[in-house]
Design a protein that fits this description.
The protein is of the alpha+beta class. Helices cover 41% and strands 24% of the residues.
């Protein structure tokens, strides 16, 4: 489902009125249109299921010289999303995704694209990890997936408690990463490399 830009414009104009602003003043005249275009971009992922995202990014290649226990890790994927509780920005997010290939590997940029598309929804950081893991499982055919996310939440840093230095770290471990403590430790240790 695509973002209904006309409804967004109508509601942003109403929101401006509700907070005591004048939507006709020079700086705000085009704000409803700008917000509608921004929402179309930043909420693109709402229009796709995890299955559809996996299909979009499912091109794989034969795994070269695969050995049991090989890990592919793409770390520090920069991302942002919007919290579904306050529609507040989750920012300075670093997403690390690891998987153990089973006969096939996915292009590295596809991993970043999967993370980006999953983030383009109203989200919870915990769900971002589980959604990325689910999409990775479907796209790669590997059940051995780990997702580690660190991020700041403006619903904590800019309002309420206003705890600016706080960040949130979440982990999602599937398959061998969930079952094998040594493998889990190995991927966590890999995060500190380079």
């Amino acid at each position: 489902m695509a973002v209904d830009k006309e409804k967004v414009k109508e509601h942003i104009r109403g929101l401006l009125l509700a907070i005591g602003e004048d939507p006709e003043r020079e700086g705000l005249k085009e704000t409803p249109d700008r917000v509608a275009r921004m929402y179309e971009e930043v909420f693109e992922g709402i229009g796709y299921t995890n299955d559809e995202i996996a299909e979009m990014f499912s091109k794989t290649f034969e795994a070269p010289g695969e050995k049991e226990g090989d890990i592919v890790l793409v770390k520090d994927i920069s991302a942002f999303s919007y919290c579904e509780h306050h529609i507040a920005l989750m920012y300075d997010m670093k997403i690390s995704v690891a998987y153990i290939p089973h006969e096939r590997v996915i292009g590295l940029s596809k991993i970043a694209r999967i993370a980006e598309m999953v983030c383009k929804r109203l989200q919870l950081q915990e769900r971002i990890g589980t959604d990325i893991a689910e999409v990775m499982e479907k796209a790669t055919g590997s059940k051995d997936v780990a997702v580690i996310i660190s991020g700041k939440h403006s619903c904590m840093t800019a309002r309420g408690i206003k705890n600016v230095p706080s960040s949130t770290v979440t982990t999602t471990f599937r398959g061998a990463f969930k079952e094998d403590e040594n493998l889990k430790r190995r991927v966590i240790d890999m995060l500190s490399i380079g």
